[in-house]
Input
Amino acid sequence: MSMIVPCLVALLLAFALFKKVDVYGSFVGGAKNAVGTAVGVLPYLSAMFLMVNLLRASGIGGYVVDFLAFPLSFLGIPKQLVELMLLRPFSGSGSLAILKDVYLQHGVDTYVGRCASVIMGSSETVFYVSAVYFAGTKIKHTGWAIPIALFCNLVGGVLACWLCKVL
Amino acid sequence: MNIVWTSVVVVCLVAMAFSNPSGALTVCVQSMSQGISVAVELCAVYCLWMGVFAVAEKCLLVEKLASVCGGVLKWLFGSISPKAKGYIALNVASNLLGVGNASTPSAQSAIKEMEHGSKLSRAGAMLFVINATSIQLVPTTVVGLRASCGSANPADIVLPTLLCTLATTVLGVAFVFLGYGVAK
Output
């Protein structure tokens, strides 16, 4: 599997040269736009990390987790996974760190460990993605987009815990 | 977002002023530098993939990719410019290949190409939902972490993950159809 991407890129570059495209010039031209894009995203990322880190450092995040553990347990989500599910929409690296904690505390091949894996693999960093996608556009109102994505991720979590029981 | 962000930050700052006043500023500054380091990482990934995509664009491969999946794109996104179609095709392809980071610049370009007002259009919402419900074929990061943590069978979560991500993506697309109607 891991061979596919390097091979595709090599094939593309060779094909472009064969087609007499200025490969070097196009690559540099494309890469030039990357700097502006990344700089545009920076303030949004900082603001989001500020909120998430303050929640964790002040201990309020812990209360939120305890508070939500009870309703989520009715949906079949173990309480060890509530923190993972809550942080997942905000931060990929943060939720990866929690995933590792879950593995170390509860074991990789246990029910909780497998659920955590499926949740991590099938959900996405909704708020992070929205910050990155809409930075540098005029979009102020995102309508149904974020609620739909969050709800789908919640359903994904419930489904993940169920699938791990069955499969 | 304005109200949620501000109230969460204010409540947390007040709580920290009592519990751990000296740590509050450290956390704030750390968050900013975290933002910068992630942006630098993103910049590196963007440089690579925007460069590669620019080459693909120059030899008209993106147009071909878009016309191959034109029918599906039209059903999902409605009538959008050929340029946006190309970016979306690239975005979905890189998602499926598991090059998650390569999907971001193409999605951004597509959004820039399609969105002009202050309100997110149906096509933009569709692209966002498809990306935010994760459509990866193999969750490489998770399988790798499982292996490094000593799992007996690191890949045994691939099937449930695939089923789960398929189900959420289909659900998300259905919700966009429900909320915004059929594509024009």
